[in-house]
Every structure is written in C-alpha cells, then in structure tokens.
C-alpha cells in the first residue's frame, strides 16, 4: 500500500479543497493554520510560565501526568500496589509537586506501570518533558506514515489542531494511544503481525481497543490477531513478573470502583465526548445513561463492521475504526479528540484521487472549532458538542462506503 501524495508547495495536495470552500484554498488554509498555531504556542507558553509562578498564577499546579509519575515512583520503591491506594498515591503526587494539588486518580492496568516506572526515574519536570516529547514524536511519525508526506509543512495543520496543546499541557497519554491506533492501521495491509503488535499495546488503555477484535475478524486479518495476542500476553506477563499478583489484584479492585467516580461527576461531564457523558450532561440518571451508551455502541459496532466488510480502502477502514472508537467507549474526554486528527489524516490521504467533498471539508473545519468550544458550550448551555467529531467522521466513512458500493452496482 503506497500513500505517497502528490505535492504542491511542499504540502500534500490532498488537503487542497477543490472547489474552494468559502474562499479557502490550500494556501489560505495553510495561512489560517499557521496563525492559529502561533496563537496556540503563545497562549501555551503563557500558561506554562504562569503555572510555575513566573507570571501571575493562572491554573492549579497539577496535571494528569502527575498521576503517572506518582504511580511509577511507587512501583520503583517496591510499592506498586499502592498506586491503586488513593491515600498513598496522592501522597506520592504531592511529594512530586507541591501540597494542596488536586488529586488525580490512577486506574490504568499494571501494563502502564512499565512505562511509568521508567519515567519516574527522572526528576518530575524533566520526566514530564521527555514523556511529552517522545509521545508527540511517535504521534507525528504515525501521521507522517499515513499521509506519506515529506518535509515539514504538513505538520502545520496537524499541530494547529487545538487538542494537541491540551494533551501537551495536561501531560496526557493521548499521543501514545492515537499513535498506536494509527500505526496499527498503517501496517495492517503490509505487515499485519506488526500491526497486531501495535494494536495489542493498547491494552495499557484497554477500552480504546474495544473495536479492534471486531474489525480484525471481519476483515480476516488473522496474522494481525496473532500479533495482538502475543503483544497483550507479553506485556501483561512482563508487568505481572515485575510488579506481582498483588498489583493486578489492587488494579481490579480499583477498576471495579471506578464507574462510581465517572458517573458521579467527579470528572465534569462537560469534558466527556461520549454518549454516556452526553446523557449525564443532560441530567439522565446513570442507569439510563449506560443504556444510551450500550445502544449507541452496538449500532456503531454494526456500522463499523459493515464498513470493514464492504470497503477495502485502508483510508475508510482506518478512519472508521478511529471514529467509531470515540463513540463506543463510555469514557473518553476532550483530549481524546486527538484521535479525530488521525481519522482526518486517513481521509485526506486516502481520498486524494477522488477529492474531498464540500461537506467533508466543512466537517473538518467544524471539528477544529468543536475541539475548542465543546467544553465551554457544554458547561454553559448543556449541549454535548463533543460527540459530533466522532459522528461526523463516521458518517463520512459510511457515506463513502455506500457511495462506492452504489457506483459498483450501477
């Protein structure tokens, strides 16, 4: 499978809207993305300096990354099960940063402790920067592989996607998750075992792999399934060997209690981008919200399975897997919208010969805007806009698949 794109001015020609959309051609879109990126960098620098007391303090001095670092530290001192003990884990977070920070839970499987324990061997701030740098680099490499791009200008629209800076600032692992999904879908046709290994590593955040077995079975990718099984068994076995059965038992105990936290609003529902979060945002009781999530998840799984059964184009398959994943999991937050960028990259690269339709271009613009506005609109108006990127992207895939099938019949 070759994804080498024709190039115009150093940028993959596939991103050039044709015909123009409200006067936005390739050159003007690059200008707007450049302006957006410069603004984001300036705001990001201001927030970082403010957080560390170099300007007026603008946010609490904690991040999601402190949870990873504290869990890794506990593992390094031989107390890995304590990563799932809230009191001990919070004490480790405070020790790494400062007293009075807000507690950030750790509900990841011990597989992720393999990464966290390595990172916690460094001083906290250096570890934070290393984690961001390495995972961002992996994410960019995965997108470059999808786009088949050369040079550097293709990174402007990718980096200007606002969620990029949310992930950097919070120190979340969304770059890693998106990269593994992207690399798995990239290698699937050429090196299925390698693709399976990439997919299997998502067991560190297992709910994001919920659609992977379905699409691999529907697509008949048995070698990829073999690779995924080997990957999961190897990482789980290594984590068990390093951290012991007690750590896995502590994880399962904490995992069983975690739904109470997520459904209670401990994490504000304005940050959710799932059907479950949308239902809770609109004040539906938890039981009914879960029913909504189950109905949507089943419908999305059927649709994604149909796409993988009906359409052999890697772009449509890859984009539908990622878009569907955003909708089938009950817990996905605004920083997980980073995966929408991967789906858009697949569509841009894979549909370069056909060209993006006017409505598809408009959907991409809307996704950029939603990634910034979703939380604020959800908070003030109770409208769950965070759902729309997954819905829009999956709709594009389904319509493309239907259109291809109809043209083939006619």
UniProtKB/TrEMBL annotation:
Segments crossing the lipid bilayer: 29-49, 103-120, 126-147, 159-187, 193-217, 224-243, 249-267, 288-308, 320-349, 384-402
Alphabetical keyword list: Cell membrane, Membrane, Transferase, Transmembrane, Transmembrane helix
GO MF annotations, alphabetized: hexosyltransferase activity
Top-level division of the source organism's lineage: Bacteria
InterPro entries: GT87
Topology in the lipid bilayer: Multi-pass membrane protein
Protein's cellular compartments: Cell membrane
GO cellular component terms attached to this protein's record: plasma membrane
Family: Belongs to the glycosyltransferase 87 family.
Stated name of the protein: DUF2029 domain-containing protein
């Amino acid at each position: 499978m070759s994804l080498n794109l024709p190039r115009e001015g150093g940028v993959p020609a596939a991103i050039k809207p044709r015909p123009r959309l409200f006067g936005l051609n390739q050159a003007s879109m690059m200008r707007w993305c450049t302006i957006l990126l410069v603004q984001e960098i300036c705001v990001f620098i201001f927030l970082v300096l403010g957080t560390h007391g170099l300007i007026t303090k603008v946010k609490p001095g904690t991040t999601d990354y402190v949870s990873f670092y504290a869990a890794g530290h506990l593992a390094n001192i031989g107390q890995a099960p304590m990563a799932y003990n809230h009191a001990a884990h919070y004490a480790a977070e405070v020790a790494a940063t400062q007293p009075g920070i807000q507690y950030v839970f750790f509900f990841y499987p011990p597989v992720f402790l393999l990464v966290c324990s390595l990172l916690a061997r460094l001083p906290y701030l250096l570890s934070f920067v290393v984690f961001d740098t390495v995972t961002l680099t992996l994410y960019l490499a995965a997108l470059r592989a999808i786009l088949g791009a050369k040079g550097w200008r293709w990174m402007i629209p990718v980096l200007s996607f606002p969620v990029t800076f949310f992930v950097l600032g919070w120190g979340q692992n969304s770059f890693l998750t998106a990269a593994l999904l992207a690399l798995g879908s990239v290698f699937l046709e050429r090196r299925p075992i390698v693709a399976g290994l990439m997919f299997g590593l998502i067991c560190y955040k297992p709910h994001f792999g919920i659609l992977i077995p379905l699409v691999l079975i529907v697509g008949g990718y048995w070698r990829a399934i073999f690779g995924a099984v080997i990957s999961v068994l190897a990482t789980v076995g290594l984590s068990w060997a390093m951290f012991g059965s007690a750590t896995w038992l502590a994880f399962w105990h904490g995992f069983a209690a975690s739904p109470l936290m997520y459904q209670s609003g401990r994490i504000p529902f304005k940050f959710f981008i799932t059907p479950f979060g949308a239902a809770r945002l609109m004040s539906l009781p938890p039981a009914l919200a879960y029913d909504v999530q189950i109905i949507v998840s089943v419908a999305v799984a059927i649709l994604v399975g149909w796409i993988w059964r009906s359409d052999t184009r890697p772009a449509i398959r890859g984009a539908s897997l990622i878009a569907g994943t955003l909708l089938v999991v009950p817990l996905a937050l605004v920083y997980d919208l980073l995966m929408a960028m991967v789906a858009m990259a697949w569509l841009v690269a894979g549909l370069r010969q056909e060209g993006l339709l006017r409505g598809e271009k408009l959907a991409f613009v809307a996704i950029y805007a939603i990634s910034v506005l979703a939380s604020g609109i959800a908070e003030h108006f109770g409208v769950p806009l965070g759902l729309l990127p997954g819905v829009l992207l999956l709709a594009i895939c389904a319509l493309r698949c239907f259109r291809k099938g109809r043209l083939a019949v006619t």
